[in-house]
Design goal:
Number of strands: 7
Helix content: 40-55%
Strand order of the largest sheet: 3-2-1-4-5-7-6
Distance between the termini: 51 Å
Structural class: alpha/beta
Oligomer: single chain
Number of domains: 1
Length: 289
């Protein structure tokens, strides 16, 4: 049974971009709840049948919906907070199937830049062709692993705004430590790149994920890699200082999303030191040093 499931998962997941369809499944399911923490009326269409198939065939593909929901909720909360503090451009790297420019109440003057590979952006544009974003939306086709092209884009965006917030939701875990450091340095080089919002896992959680879902994603060139032992402090030498760090489990526990036993763990006090071998994930807001 396990071998059949693994073979099926490989057939469904073709590349890293397909994980965006998987993420959209959880936004769609949360939207259906009467007590939803957010509403994404586009998520079901964006996920499509392939997204559902991915969730149903990946090992533990449906097991941690609470974490996906908490991550989306925290990103929404931090984005709203930073917009209130004067952010005039949001740069969403590896934007995938995120629909925030359509589903969130955003200032019409806000510049929202989505950056991702051509195929996934074309797919999203097709699904949302008849929808209207609430802000000034621009999509840029770019392979973020191309350092020179990435730096050229950042330099151009830096000239167009006064206070920039960068989002890398669901991206960092797929990078190597060197790639994460290089991205941090490139972002820090822009004088107007002031805030950076990302999600982070502990080494303990990374090992758990690599034994389940990660096995199949590795086979299509999308391995889980990055979970620094020093936690958010990893980015300090590379130009970014953590402002706020929010645990996914503690956030989800507030809204009774995880299973009961996990909710008991979610009520324990948060430890100050990095999680290390303990399973932990969270959303981190950084400021430029």
């Amino acid at each position: 049974m396990a071998e059949a499931q693994a073979a099926s998962a490989q057939a469904v997941v073709r590349n890293i971009s397909d994980t965006a369809r998987w993420a959209a499944v959880f936004r769609a399911r949360e939207t259906e709840r009467p007590d939803a923490l957010f509403r994404d009326p586009f998520a079901e269409r964006l996920a499509g049948k392939m997204g559902v198939d991915i969730a149903n065939t990946l090992p533990e593909g449906n097991s941690h919906a609470w974490a996906w929901v908490a991550r989306t909720y925290l990103f929404d909360q931090f984005i709203a907070q930073e917009l209130a503090q004067g952010v005039d451009m949001v740069v969403n790297l590896a934007a995938g199937l995120d629909a925030r420019p359509y589903r969130m109440a955003l200032p019409a003057s806000l510049q929202w830049i989505e950056v991702d590979l051509p195929e996934i952006l074309a797919y999203k544009e097709g699904i949302l062709a008849n929808e209207k974003p609430s802000c000034a939306l621009q999509r840029t086709r770019l392979d973020l692993s191309d350092g020179a092209a990435r730096r050229a884009l950042f330099a151009d965006l830096n000239r167009r705004a006064n206070k920039i917030l960068v989002l890398t939701e669901g991206l960092i875990i797929y990078l190597s430590a060197d790639e994460a450091a290089a991205l941090a340095k490139d972002l820090a080089a822009g004088s107007h790149f002031e805030r950076w919002l990302l999600d982070l896992a502990s080494p303990g959680l990374l090992r758990m994920m690599q034994r389940t879902t990660g096995k199949q994603l590795s086979k299509v060139g999308a391995p889980f890699q990055f979970a620094p032992a020093e936690g958010s402090a990893f980015f300090t030498p590379h130009g970014w200082e953590p402002l706020e760090v929010k645990s996914l489990l503690k956030t989800a526990t507030r809204f009774k999303r995880p299973p009961f036993l996990l909710r008991l763990l979610g009520r324990l006090p948060e430890m100050r030191q990095p999680a290390g071998n303990r399973p932990w994930s969270g959303v981190c807001l950084f400021k430029k040093r």
